Amino acid sequence: MTTTLVSTATPTHAQPAWRRWLLSREAAIIGLLALLVIFAFTSIPNFGSPLTLTYLLRDTAPILLIALPMTLIIITEEIDLSVASILGLSSVLTGVLTAGGFPFVLAALIAILAGALAGAINGFFVTVVGLPSLAVTIGTLALFRGIAVGLLGTTAITDFPEFWTDLARSTIPGTPIPSIMIPFALLAIAFAVLLHATPFGRSLYAIGLNKETAHFSGIDVARSKFLLFVLSGTVSGFAGVYFTLLYSNARGDNAMGMELQVIAAVLLGGVSIFGGRGAIHGVIGGVLLIGALGSALRLANVGSDTIQVITGVLLILSVVSASVLRWARSRRDAALGRRRQAAARATLDTTSTGTTHVP
């Protein structure tokens, strides 16, 4: 009779979902936002006033809107640097058409459609021609901005229907929350469901991780990316209409440089610049963190140049931290693999030497 002694390993159980969320980068950003708000509320005069909240959400609303499609684009390892120029072009078209006698609603719809067309142009060059999105959108950033400035020159249009400007500046009755947060909330829910609860959203993560593998898995990579650029242009066009009404100002240089604020907030919110990772709630937290930080610094009499420097530093830290985390995960996975191989060898050694013969 032969008895074989075999060692068994204790199975490793996955972490609970709530613990994984608490340890995620998105949770860290939301936690930082909460700490910043508490600190500013107790230390900076007027930060906790309802008026401050109103202006904070109003000013960040265009960034919040544009960050939604930008999240999906960066998850697929692409980028859109033309969003602020599309916003500016939409703003100018809204002003020019309204001044030309078009009903405001029709002018706004045309401006939004122009944004969708601009996004389609980006998508065409990226997905059909096959050019890098960075190069394409740098070019269209200048193109769309040039068209916007060319239409108005150095002049500005400031006469818009009072009903619509009042609506853009209004708040939800009984609260200091701007009314623009209602369409934003609806869009945020739609984008969150699209990204996190549909096959299309899952395919975006697959594209960002490895577009060749995604293609051979049956995912239409070109079509998916094209749709994302059209979405980005459409939302940027809508943000341009809102921006115009909020400030009663249509100018070719509106929102110049906003694309960097959007990208900084998206990366800060946990979306990997290398693609394949990110979540809508983290991005919203990133936008609000940058907005709250800027509001607190302005109330503390910090200059706008310094605020821009801090935003740039946050962008750099977002990219660097993503790279460091990626490197740390690869080292951890390699170490785990070596330990598993060592455990397997030990098991084989025990199996081969742990045999006894019983007469």
Which structural class should the secondary elements be placed in?
Answer: mainly alpha
Terminal Cα separation, in Å? 7 Å
The low-confidence parts are: 1-13
Number of helices: 14
What is the β-strand count? 2
Beta-strand share of residues: under 5%
Q: What overall form do the CA principal axes indicate?
A: globular
Percent of residues in helices: over 70%
List SSEs in N-to-C order.
EHHHHHHHHHHHHHHE
**Cα-based radius of gyration, to the nearest Å:** 25 Å
In round numbers, the mean pLDDT is 88
Reported for the largest beta sheet, the result is: 2 strands, antiparallel
> Strand arrangement, largest sheet?
1-2
Task: Characterise this structure.
There is one protein chain. The termini are close together. The protein contains 14 helices and two strands. Helix 3 (50-75) packs across helix 9 (199-209), helix 4 (83-99) runs parallel beside helix 6 and helix 5 (104-128) packs antiparallel against helix 6. Mean pLDDT is 88; it is low at 1-13. It has a two-stranded antiparallel sheet with strand order 1-2. It has 359 residues and is mainly alpha-helical. It has a domain at 42-255. Helix content is 73%, strand content 2%.
